Amino acid sequence: MFVHGKRALFIVPIAAAVLAASACSSDTKSSPNSLTLGFMWQIKGESSVSINDFQDASQVALDVIQKQGGVNGQPLNTFRVATDPVDPAKLAIQFQQGVSQQPDAMVGLVGPALEGILPSITTAKIPVMFVGTEPFAAFGNNSGSQYLYEALSTGEDSGRVAAEFAVNQLHAKKIAFAHTNDAYGTAISAAAQEKATSLGATVFTDQSYDSKSTDLTNVVLAVKGADAIINFGFQGSTATLAKQLDQNEVTIPLIGGQDTGSDVLNNAFPETESARSYVVANCNPHTDPSADAQTFAEAYKAIHGSYPSQGATVTYDSIIMLAKAAEAANSTDPAKIQAALDTVQYQGVCGAYQSDGQHILLHNFEVLSFKDGVDKAKIETTYTIPPGDKLN
């Protein structure tokens, strides 16, 4: 059950294949007591779906930590591995490249390819702050990993929120569903369809597509006649769909998750389609009046050129939280950092972080609209998801 409450959102990218991002070399600590983080993401140009949200957010976080004197009085060391978000075979190799540099923790690994390396994460025994919303990341029941922490609420929950908003707020009766044809899109769309039908709506059509597809005309034609479309895809593919909806004059509301939010905030949607779109997000800092949110949003915009997405914001928060965990443990030992992540509470820009039994850290959503422009997002409504126990 969803309880009305409040929450916020963002997204960010980093450097080339394997890149040192701080004062130390990419494979050696400047001090045995200094914290080393592995940043596991691509930057724009490294693939057809890569973005700079994660990298730019990390730069803001590193500046903050440096100004605070580092972690436990020592400089924070980082490196980056360009990890493929959709190719499991490539990601398996890239993850081991990161492990070989002996980080104390990792951040990133966004994308559906994560599912294939869950056993490797457990074997590596390195805590990972995951900044995506994959359905299989929750810990327990042969999913997730004891070393994997999902900063955002689950993808299935975002799908359920999208469906509840479509039915109860937009009064949609016939809902078209579109999603990438991978585990990520399929599972989230299934959860959304189940929620929508339980509220009395009907599934107008169910369309799947490849995340790298450049022609979604068949999807656009199939959704004509629906009251709304709920789409969960990967960044880039959501923009492709938005452009082709606009080109074909399909003017129904579009509801999506963090990838839709990333494409909207990066101005990849046509302006008319952004005005018809709604984003289910854990947070959106530039609509949050708090000083911390505004400071982050402006610092990020100065680097990135636009306001932060949910992915950018949670990347920033994840880096700060790992620093807090190392300080709470008074150690850079991965096992002690992992134990600290189970108990550390952190009020970040994107909300209050605390791990539940499934290693999910955030439990609130808000639905954003952009009728007055991308830089003037409005919170339409909010939802709270109860913390979950470990899956059995």
Write a compact overview of the structure shown.
The protein has helices at residues 53-67, 88-100, 118-124, 155-168, 183-198, 217-223, 237-247, 258-265, 271-275, 291-304, 310-329, 334-341; strands at residues 18-20, 36-40, 77-81, 105-108, 128-130, 148-150, 174-180, 202-209, 228-232, 254-256, 277-281, 346-348, 351-353, 364-369, 378-384. The chain is α/β, with parallel strands linked by helices.
Please tell me about this protein's structure.
- With 392 residues, the chain is of the alpha/beta class.
- The chain has two domains: 18-153 and 289-365, Response regulator (Rossmann fold, 3-Layer(aba) Sandwich), CATH 3.40.50; 155-281, Rossmann fold.
- Helix content is 35%, strand content 18%.
- It contains twelve helices and 15 strands.
- It has helices spanning 53-67, 88-100, 118-124, 155-168, 183-198, 217-223, 237-247, 258-265, 271-275, 291-304, 310-329, 334-341, and strands spanning 18-20, 36-40, 77-81, 105-108, 128-130, 148-150, 174-180, 202-209, 228-232, 254-256, 277-281, 346-348, 351-353, 364-369, 378-384.
- The strands form three sheets. The chain has a seven-stranded mixed sheet with strand order 8-7-9-10-11-14-15, sandwiched between helices. The protein has a six-stranded mixed sheet with strand order 1-3-2-4-5-6, sandwiched between helices.
- A hairpin with a 2-residue loop joins β12 and β13 (351-353).
- α1 (53-67) packs across α10 and α11 packs across α12 (334-341).
- The chain is globular and about 60 Å long.
- The chain starts with 17 loop residues before the first strand and ends in an 8-residue tail after the last strand.
